[in-house]
C-alpha cells in the first residue's frame, strides 16, 4: 500500500512516520519542521517562564512514550520532503507527483492546510489525526482545554476526514486515553493510542470499511 503522510518533526510525529514505514510498500513523507525546544526556542509561542515550565512537562511526557523516536528510521521504501513550518500550502502538486499518487493520505500536526492541496486531499479522503475529541473540542491544545474545563472524560483523539473546517470533517472513530494521574502523560497517551489504532486499521485495511459520522456542531464546547 502506498501512503503519504503530512506531519511535523517532533518525536510523536516521527513515531507515526516510523510506524507507517512498517506497513506501507511506499511511504512519502512531507514533514514541516518547527522547533523541537518549545519554551526555550519561542518558535510560534511567546517565550516566558510559564511556557518554558509547561513545555518542559509536555516534553517529559513525550519522552516517556516516544523517546526512541528522536530520529526517523527510514527504509528504502521512504521518500522525504522537508519543509519549514507554514510552507505546506506552497507545494505545487505537479512538482512532487510521486507524493500525490498514494492509496491513503494521513495528516497529523501540520500547519493549517488550504487551497489546492486541501482540495486534493479532501477529494482523496485524507485522514486527519486530531488530538482532542471532536465535536466537543476543536483547534489547538484541545486536551489541555478539556482538563482546564474539568472535562477529563473528554480527553482523547479523533480520527476524521480532512475538511476545510478545522477538525470538522466526518468522524471515523475516536480514541480515549490511558488512566494516568499525571496530566501530561494522561493527554500524551492519547497520541500513542491514536497512532497505534490507525496503524492497526491500515494494516488490516479496515480503515476503508468504516462508515463516517457527520459532526454535530451544536455539541461544541470550545474552539481554541
Structure overview:
This protein is an alpha/beta fold. The chain has 5 helices and 9 strands; from the N terminus they run βαβαββαββαββαβ. β1, α1 (11-23) and β2 form a beta-alpha-beta unit. The strands form 2 sheets. It has a 7-stranded mixed sheet. The chain has helices at 11-23, 49-66, 115-123, 142-148, 183-203; strands at residues 2-7, 26-33, 78-84, 104-108, 127-130, 137-138, 157-161, 171-175, 222-223.
Number of strands: 9
Average pLDDT rating: 93
Structural class, from helix and strand content?
alpha/beta
Strand order of the largest sheet: 3-2-1-4-5-7-8
Produce the secondary structure layout.
Layout lengths: L1 E6 L3 H13 L2 E8 L15 H18 L11 E7 L19 E5 L6 H9 L3 E4 L6 E2 L3 H7 L8 E5 L9 E5 L7 H21 L18 E2 L1
Parallel strand pairs: 1-2, 1-4, 2-3, 4-5, 6-9
Antiparallel strand pairs: 5-7, 7-8
Helix pairs in contact: 1-5, 2-5
Structure summarized in a few sentences:
The protein has 224 residues and is an alpha/beta fold. 30% of the residues lie in helices and 20% in strands. The N and C termini lie far apart (35 Å).
Amino acid at each position: 500500500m502506498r501512503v503519504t503522510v503530512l506531519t511535523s518533526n517532533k518525536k510523536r510525529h516521527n513515531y507515526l512516520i516510523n510506524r507507517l514505514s512498517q506497513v506501507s510498500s511506499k511511504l512519502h513523507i512531507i514533514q514541516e519542521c518547527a522547533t523541537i525546544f518549545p519554551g526555550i526556542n519561542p518558535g510560534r509561542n511567546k517565550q516566558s517562564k510559564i511556557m518554558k515550565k509547561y513545555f518542559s512537562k509536555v516534553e517529559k511526557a513525550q519522552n516517556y512514550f516516544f523517546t526512541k523516536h528522536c530520529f526517523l528510521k527510514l527504509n528504502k521504501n521512504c521518500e522525504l520532503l522537508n519543509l519549514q513550518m507554514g510552507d505546506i500550502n506552497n507545494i505545487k502538486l505537479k512538482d512532487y507527483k510521486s507524493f500525490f499518487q498514494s492509496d491513503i493520505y494521513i495528516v497529523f500536526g501540520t500547519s493549517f492546510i488550504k487551497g489546492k492541496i486541501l482540495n486534493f486531499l479532501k477529494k482523496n479522503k485524507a485522514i486527519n489525526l486530531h488530538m482532542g475529541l471532536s465535536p466537543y473540542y476543536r483547534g489547538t491544545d484541545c486536551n489541555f482545554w478539556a482538563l482546564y474545563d474539568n472535562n477529563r472524560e473528554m480527553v482523547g483523539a479523533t480520527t476524521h476526514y480532512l475538511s476545510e473546517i478545522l477538525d470538522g470533517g466526518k468522524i471515523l472513530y475516536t480514541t480515549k486515553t490511558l488512566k494516568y494521574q499525571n496530566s501530561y502523560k494522561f493527554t500524551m497517551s492519547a497520541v500513542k493510542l491514536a497512532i497505534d489504532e490507525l496503524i492497526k486499521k491500515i494494516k488490516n485495511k479496515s480503515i476503508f470499511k468504516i462508515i463516517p459520522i457527520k459532526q454535530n456542531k451544536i455539541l461544541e464546547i470550545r474552539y481554541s
